[in-house]
Amino acid sequence: MEMENSRLSSQPVLRLDNVTKAYGTNLILDHVSFDVNEHEVVALLGPSGSGKSTLMKCVNLLEHVNDGQIWLGDTDITDPRARENDIRARIGVVFQQFNLFPHMTVLDNIILASVHVLKKDKQESIDKAMNLLKRIGMADKAKSYPDRLSGGQQQRVAIVRALMTDPKMLLLDEITSALDPMLVGEVLTMVMELKEQGATILMATHEMSFAHKAADRIVLLRGGHIIENGSPQEVMDESTNPETQEFFSYFRNL
C-alpha cells in the first residue's frame, strides 16, 4: 500500500484549472478542475453530452478553452504563445476511430510522425516500432495494410503509434466504442499492460467494469460539471449522491 501511495504522490503531469468551454451560449465545460498525476490512470466518465469529448479535445488543443488553464507539467498549454506541435508531441492520443492511413503499411503508419514530424532517424524509428510490435505480438503484421487487420488489431497499432513519441501521457478517447464486442478485450488488455508499466493515462470510456478495475481515480462529469472525483470504490460503489447512483445503476441494469 505504501508503494502504491508513493507511486501516485508526484507532481501532476496534467492539471486542469477552472476550464470553461462554450459554443456560443451553449456551455459545455463549466469551471472544470482536476489533476492527473504521474503513473496514474484517470477514467473520465459521464453520460452523453456531459463534456467528456470536448474536454479531451481541449487537452489535445483541438479546441481552445474560453477560460481557465490547462498545464502539461510546467507548461501552460492554453497560453496562445504555446507551441502546439511541441505540446502534441508530448501527448499520445488514441481516438475511437483508428485513423490509420489505408495506403500505408502498419510499420509506415507507426513511424510516420517520428520520422517526418519529429525528424528522428528512420532506422532507429523502425527498430523502436518493431520492438513495440513484438511486445504486443504483432511483429508479423508490420508489412500488412490496415484493411488486413481486425478492428482490435488496428486499435492496438494506433496505441503503438501514440507510444512512438515517448509521450508524457496518453489520452484514450472511447477507444473501444467502434469495436465489435468480441474485440474489445484485446484492446483493454493492452491498456492494462500499459498501466502495469507505469503509463500516465486519461481515458474517456463507457466500459464501466474496466474503469473500475483499471483506474486509480474516477472523474464523473454531468452537464459540464464534475460531480465526483475519487477512487473507483468511492465513486462507483459508495457514493450517496443521487445523480451518481442513477448513472451507475443504469449500467448495472443493462
TrEMBL record:
Task: State the superkingdom.
Answer: Bacteria
Supply the Gene3D superfamilies for this chain. P-loop containing nucleotide triphosphate hydrolases
Tell me the membrane topology, using the record's own terms. Answer: Peripheral membrane protein
Residue ranges of domain ABC transporter in the record:
14-248
Asked if the record carries the keyword ATP-binding, the reply is yes
Q: Which UniProt keywords apply?
A: Amino-acid transport, ATP-binding, Cell membrane, Membrane, Nucleotide-binding, Transport
Signal peptide bounds: none
Gene Ontology terms, MF aspect = ATP binding
**InterPro entries hit by this protein:** AAA+_ATPase (IPR003593), ABC_ATPase_HisP-typ (IPR030679), ABC_transporter-like_ATP-bd (IPR003439), ABC_transporter-like_CS (IPR017871), MetN_ABC_transporter-like (IPR050086), P-loop_NTPase (IPR027417)
First-listed, main subcellular location of the protein, grouped into a coarse class: membrane
Q: Which SUPFAM superfamilies match?
A: P-loop containing nucleoside triphosphate hydrolases
Subcellular location(s): the record lists: Cell membrane
> Mind telling me which PANTHER family this protein's record contains?
AMINO ACID IMPORT ATP-BINDING PROTEIN, GLUTAMATE_ASPARTATE IMPORT ATP-BINDING PROTEIN GLTL
Q: Which family does it belong to?
A: Belongs to the ABC transporter superfamily.
Q: What is this protein called?
A: Amino acid ABC transporter ATP-binding protein
- Taxonomic source organism: Alloscardovia venturai
Upper classification of the source organism reads: Bacteria, Bacillati, Actinomycetota, Actinomycetes, Bifidobacteriales
